[in-house]
Amino acid sequence: MKMVCLSADISDNDIYCNEDLIENVKNELYNVRDVGASICEITNITGDDMAITAVIPHDNDLEKVNNTIFNILKNNAKGFKDLDGVSDTAEGAGEGISYAEIDLDPNFCPDAVIIEFDTYCGEPFVGKVAKSAIEAAKGMEFLGDIDGGSVEDVLKIPGVGYVSNKTDDPVILASVYNVEHVGVIAGAMIGAILGNKNTYLVKRNTPANVIPGSVIFSVTAFMNGNVIDLSSHFSYRTKILEK
C-alpha cells in the first residue's frame, strides 16, 4: 500500500494557478481512481504549482496511477516547462515534476502531512530548506514513512519517466499513524523550514507575490481523503499571548 504525490507547474504564469485550471484538473481525478487509487485529491496549490496526492492499495498499480496523474496534468496544462523536462531516458532528463512516494501501513488510516514549495526563479537554497524539514520529522513518534525533497541527481518516477536535479519546487510526503501527532510532526517541519532564510508559510492557493529570491510553502493534512489547510491554524498558534 502506497501514497504518492506529484507536483508540477502547469500554469501559464509564474505567480498563481487560475480557478479554471484547478477545476479542470479536479474534474478528471476520477480517472486516477479508475486505475487503482482508492483516494485522489489536489492537496496543495502553492503559487503556480499544484500537487496531486493518491492512495494506492495495491503496489502493482503504482505505475498506472502515476501515469494517469501525469497525463491529467499534461492534458490540462497551460504551461509545459515542468512536463517537457520529463524524459524516457536518464540522459535526457531536465527540470521536471516533483515526486514523493511512501509506504503505508494498511492497519492505519492513510493520513499524511504534505508540504509543497514554490520558488519564484529556482532559488537554489530550497533544497536545504526541504532537507531540514525531513530531518526534523525523522525519528518522531508515530511518523510512518517520509519521502521527497530536492532531486540530487536523476530521479526515475515509476510510470512517468526521469527528471533531473534542475527540478526546483520540492514536495514532501510524511505518513502519520496517530491523529494527535499530525500537528506535532507538521509543527516540527514548519519550524525547521521557517528557521531558514527567505522562506514563508502561506495558505493553500496563495499567489507567489513575494520579493524575488524568496520561497513560499503550503502545508496540508491529508486525512483519509480530506484536505485540511494547516497554515492558518499554525499562524494562530504562534501568536504571542498578551500578558
Q: In percent terms, what proportion of residues is strand?
A: 25-35%
What is the averaged pLDDT score? 95
Q: What portion of residues is helical?
A: 25-40%
Q: Detail the poorly predicted runs.
A: none
Q: Give the C-alpha Rg.
A: 17 Å
Order of helices and strands: EHHEEHHEEHEEEEHEEEH
Q: Would you report the number of β strands?
A: 12
Largest sheet: 6 strands, mixed
Structural key phrases:
four-stranded antiparallel sheet, 7 helices, alpha+beta, six-stranded mixed sheet
Explain this structure to me?
The protein has seven helices and twelve strands. Helix 5 (126-137) runs antiparallel to helix 6 (182-194). It is of the alpha+beta class. The chain has helices at residues 19-26, 30-34, 62-76, 81-84, 126-137, 182-194, 231-237, and strands at residues 2-9, 39-46, 49-56, 98-103, 111-119, 143-148, 154-157, 161-164, 171-176, 199-201, 215-223, 226-229. The model has no long low-confidence stretch (mean pLDDT 95). Strand 11 (215-223) and strand 12 form a beta hairpin.
